[in-house]
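Milestone M4 deliverable, item 7.
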Amino acid sequence: MWSHLKRSLANLTKHSLDPFTALVKTRLKQMQYRFRLIEGLIAETGLGLSD
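Output delivered:
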């Protein structure tokens, strides 16, 4: 997930940490509702979601 997030932030430059932090939170919030993306990222790990 971090790799996917980093790619979306790669070419951004921020002058302070606060705007960057807000942007990261926004991007993570957007990712949380993309179930197929999350399923794909989990599938890439080779791990299951069993208890």
